[in-house]
Amino acid sequence: MIRSILIGALAIGVVGTSYWGYKEHQEKNAVLINAENTYQRAFHDLNFHMDALEEKIGSTLAMNSRSSLSPALAEVWRLTSEAQNDVGQLPLTLMPFNKTEEFLSNIGSFSYRVAVRDLDEKPLSEDEYETLKKLHNHSNDVKNELRKVQAMVIDHNLRWMDVELALASESEPQDNTIIDGFKTVDKQVEGYSEVNWGPEVNQLNEKKQNLSKNIEGEELSEKEAKQHVLDFLDIDKNASIDITTTGKDSKYQAYSLSIENPENKSSVNLDVTKKGAKPIWILMDRKIGKQKLSLNEAANKATNFLKEHDITNMEISESSQYERMGVFTFVYQQGDVTIYPDAVHIKVALDNGDITGYESIEYLTNHHERKVTEPTISRNEALEQVNPNVQIMEEGLGVIKNDLGEEVLCYEFMGTIENETYRIFVNADTGREERVEKMDGTEMNYDTM
Fold first, then answer.
1. Is 0.85 surpassed by the pTM of this model?
2. What residue ranges do the domains of the chain occupy?
3. Per CATH, is 201-286 categorized as 3.30.160?
4. Residue-wise pLDDT tens digits, 64-94
5. What span is annotated as the signal peptide, if there is one (predicted)?
6. Long-range own/partner contacts, residues 80-84 (CB < 8 A, 24 or more apart)
7. Looking at domain 379-441, which CATH architecture does it have?
């Protein structure tokens, strides 16, 4: 009797263990299948976005009007962001692919910088046109190499899970077609050093390198970063969000997010720092309706936006309007001194006051309280260095970065000559003329000076 009971109990135990093992196996398979599907989708999306990127860059070469070129370059920027997000979802963290990621980042920075400026006042230069031609050729090369990898993946039913296992292996990965293909792409991109990105993009890359040093606080998880961004942008929690992290070889550690906001039928792309989820840049893509706000009303919207997010003591130094957008540069005010390196740039839609663009990398990289010393030379001594034909309208003190990247205190003079407006900086210690800027039709806020 006891023997029968024991045998029965043992049988039940064996069946139960077998069922548990089977269930665990099924759950594990489901996880692996889901991961494989995610990798495959991201890879094929990457190919799609690279195809679209190459085509869109090519179309910009044939454009001549600002009304066509600005949105086309904004679309180039959006596609590079999408391609970077696709790369971020692939299991490539253990494999060098940073040259390609950097290439995409630089395309995005270049296209964004050109897209948001007033191309009527400052049209595409010959150097920038040559850069676009090279980017078109290079993006075509990358597209073709990725297509080769895609063809092999499809023809041979290759699995991304095998890539992940190979990269995680202690030994050197051996003969993996996908790994070899991506190494070829990255090696090819490494040879694109002749691209002239222009001083703005090169300076931006330097700022990115300094960014991680200046941000304090604990790193947030993806979930925490998502919530922080939704709160920052005042977007409903039910909005669709994709989030990826920058590669380990990136110039700064951040989360990249893409948000589909059904409330105003917009898509929002942005980067936030891992520490504190501070927005580095934001770009909202939506149709802008009929203008209802003045530039001054839009300026108030931008000012309130900064105050709401604890970015204080900021004053507008420049403002301009193109089409139905207001564009503003804010700089930090320390007492009566304007701190130009601590800058934030904001775009406001003139139909309803939405913040459609935001960039704070200069502020995040540079902001701190300075110990500002008294000028060595007098205001009159500084004024002697200014062309006497310039009619001075306003003046003040400001800190700028000189050609060596050093912060210097300057007397700042705003004036006109031949119906053009210039901003002139004279070193407050040496009397040297540090910089002369033509204002290119921007509206100045003289109250900050």
1. no
2. 20-196, 201-286, 287-368, 379-441
3. no
4. 666 678 888 888 888 887 888 788 777 765 5
5. none
6. 80/53, 80/104, 80/105, 80/107, 80/108, 80/111, 81/108, 81/256, 81/258, 81/269, 82/45, 82/49, 82/258, 83/46, 83/49, 83/50, 83/53, 84/108, 84/244, 84/256
7. Roll (3.10)
